[in-house]
Write a structure and sequence with these properties.
Elements: H1 4-31, E1 35-36, E2 38-41, E3 57-58, E4 62-64, E5 77-83, E6 92-93, E7 98-100, E8 106-114, E9 120-122, E10 127-129, E11 137-144, E12 161-167, E13 176-177, H2 182-191, H3 200-219, E14 244-250, E15 257-266, E16 270-275, H4 279-289, H5 291-306, E17 318-323, E18 332-333, E19 353-357, H6 367-389, H7 397-410, H8 415-425, H9 447-470, H10 476-484, H11 488-501, H12 519-522, E20 534-537, E21 543-547, E22 553-558, E23 563-567, E24 571-578
Parallel strand pairs: 2-8, 16-17, 17-19, 20-22
Antiparallel strand pairs: 1-3, 4-7, 5-6, 5-8, 9-24, 10-23, 11-22, 11-24, 12-21, 12-23, 13-20, 14-15, 15-16, 18-19
Helix pairs in contact: 5-6, 6-7, 7-9, 8-9, 9-10
């Protein structure tokens, strides 16, 4: 039987327990739940200080990750955000990211990315030490360095030059295609086929028209000058909706076609004529996709960015002709002969005219492709007239087509433009890649090469330089050098490095950067696109390679590198490391 004192002790303990629980509850009410800190660690920084977050967080609360506000730096490296582990193998967090607090303190470590600002130049005939790049993914980039302006509209194998690239130390050198799985090939083929709106009809038309431009310029014939000089093939002087214009030449067909047209719309900057067989479709397109309004905006942008077309028919507007005769992937064209009397060129329609397809494939979700065509072909017209006005007798296709890619970009219709860049940047694409292409010798595969190069010029030299490429008496390389006040070989060398380094944080040098084009977006495989199709183990055996002027040759090297030698004349090369 429990004693009276035992009962008292039990009751005392019970009472103390209750009181302690009450005190704990009161303390929790007063002090709140447990709180945790977010701390920032410089992770061996050599200057600056980590940011400080003095806030205390409770479980489930969200912290906003701080940026590098105190100029945290580490010699030889670029700040790459924060990571939950000092070795960078934890979870990455960028500035302003949301961090969910759990039931512990958190430390975020500065993430340092190896900074290769001093790219190793590969000078012909000189051994270059690459020891500083060991431990990273090492790549070499080689291109020709012509001592004259090497360019043209016809590329021949005789233009190829040979060089030898070799390294010392490490295993025996080998050159072999990098392995790629069937799944990777399927993904790449699906993502990087030809631009969705491009076909053989456009390729053949471009070849024909660019040659016609040079033939007409070389002829020295004077353009029409206003309505008083127009002949029987010109559109009527007074144009309203419903005005008929018959026997219009369509030069994209073989044999040539004559079509009857009618004006279906008039805007501030353009008259829109439809092939009489396409009237209902064209009226629907104009209304549904806003082509008239788009054309007015495009005319303003193209004139501002490139220059002005000559108003040879004196009506103050561009004429747009829609016809089903533009087929087989032909989106549109500008015929330079239209600027001249039909008495001199029998296919001339005597006006400032752009021709556009009525193929329903390019409507609906693809409707912006024809708006891009307006911008693209109008640039060709402006380019032709600006050079005619300065008595130029020939031009180079590579720069003319690159500027029309710029016109698509400037007007915001970039579907085809980005498709071309994609197809150029990704080796192993089913249809296109950079191997075997010269920037300055035109082939049907060069659209993407020109598109990405003109974007580099826009980003590095600005819109004024782009206008000066069009509104000038200079052509090709000479025009680029005059517009940028820089040597073309220097521009090209920096451009090729930017193709690999831009957007990677491997270099903060602005010369190696695209600012309006995110290459990691257009190359979803990471730096995948231009990383090489050939891989080499660093070793002793030299390999002979040949490339065209202003072609790019990339190689990846593995093993412990000692020295590398570029043998040949008229080449420039670079070796660089990528940290990941």
């Amino acid at each position: 039987m429990q004693s009276r004192w035992g009962k008292a002790a039990f009751l005392t303990c019970l009472l103390l327990g209750v009181m302690f629980s009450i005190l704990l509850s009161l303390a929790a009410c007063v002090l709140g739940p447990p709180s945790y800190s977010v701390r920032y660690n410089g992770n061996d920084n050599t200057s600056g200080t980590p940011p400080v977050d003095n806030h205390r967080y409770v479980e489930g609360e969200i912290a906003t990750v701080l940026g590098n506000s105190e100029n945290l730096a580490k010699t030889g490296f670029v700040f790459g955000g924060w990571n939950t582990r000092s070795d960078g193998k934890g979870t990455d967090y960028d500035q302003s990211a949301s961090l969910v607090i759990k039931n512990s303190n958190i430390t975020l470590y500065a993430k340092w990315i190896k900074y290769y600002s001093d790219l190793e130049p590969l000078v012909c005939g000189t051994q270059v030490s690459l020891a500083s790049l060991n431990g990273s993914n090492v790549y070499t980039l080689v291109s020709t360095k012509p001592d004259h302006r090497s360019e043209g509209n016809i590329r021949t194998d005789s233009l190829r030059k040979s060089f030898t690239l070799s390294s010392t130390a490490g295993p025996t050198t080998s050159l072999a295609p990098m392995a790629e799985t069937g799944v990777e090939t399927q993904k790449r083929s699906k993502a990087y086929g030809l631009p969705r709106a491009f076909g053989d009809g456009q390729v053949k038309s471009d070849e024909k028209i660019r040659q016609a431009e040079n033939d007409v310029l070389a002829s020295g014939v004077r353009q029409l000058s206003g309505a008083k000089e127009k002949g029987p093939m010109a559109a009527p002087s007074q144009i309203d909706v419903g005005t008929e214009w018959d026997n219009v030449h369509i030069v994209s067909t073989s044999p040539l076609m004559l079509i009857d047209t009618v004006c279906v719309a008039v805007s501030a900057s353009a008259y829109f004529f439809s092939d009489t067989r396409d009237i209902s479709n064209v009226n629907d397109y104009l209304l549904r996709y806003g082509y008239a309004e788009a054309m007015d905006a495009i005319v303003g942008v193209d004139r501002h960015k490139f220059g002005h077309e000559n108003d040879v028919d004196g009506n103050g507007k561009i004429i747009v002709v829609f016809s089903q005769e533009l087929a087989n992937g032909l989106l549109g064209y500008f015929n330079p002969q239209d600027k001249y009397p039909s008495s001199r060129f029998t296919t001339s329609n005597e006006g400032d005219i752009i021709y556009v397809t009525t193929d329903p494939h390019y409507q609906g979700t693809n409707g912006n492709i024809l708006k891009a065509t307006f911008a693209h072909e109008l640039q060709h017209m402006i380019y032709f007239d600006e050079h005619y006005n300065r008595h130029v007798t020939s031009t180079y296709t590579w720069l003319n087509e690159a500027l029309s890619q710029a016109a698509e970009y400037y007007n915001g219709y970039t579907e085809n433009h980005l498709d071309w860049i994609n197809s150029f940047l990704v080796p192993g694409s089913e249809h296109r890649d950079w191997r075997g292409l010269s920037l300055t010798y035109w082939t049907n595969d060069n659209y993407g090469y020109g598109a990405v190069f003109i974007r580099y010029l826009i980003d590095q030299y600005g819109d004024t330089a782009i206008r000066n490429l069009c509104s000038t008496d200079k052509i090709g390389i000479a025009a680029v050098e005059a517009a940028t006040n820089d040597a073309f070989n220097n521009i090209f060398s920096n451009f090729t490095k930017a193709l690999v380094l831009s957007g990677t944080n491997e270099s903060i040098d602005p010369k190696y950067r695209f600012t309006t084009l995110n290459l990691q977006t257009v190359q979803p495989t990471g730096r995948g696109g231009l990383l090489p199709s050939l891989t080499c183990a660093a070793g002793s055996t030299a390999r002979d390679i040949s490339i065209y002027p202003y072609e790019i040759s990339f190689y990846q090297w593995s093993g412990t590198l000692g020295t590398m030698t570029l043998s040949g004349s008229g080449f420039f090369g670079t070796a660089f490391g990528l940290s990941g």
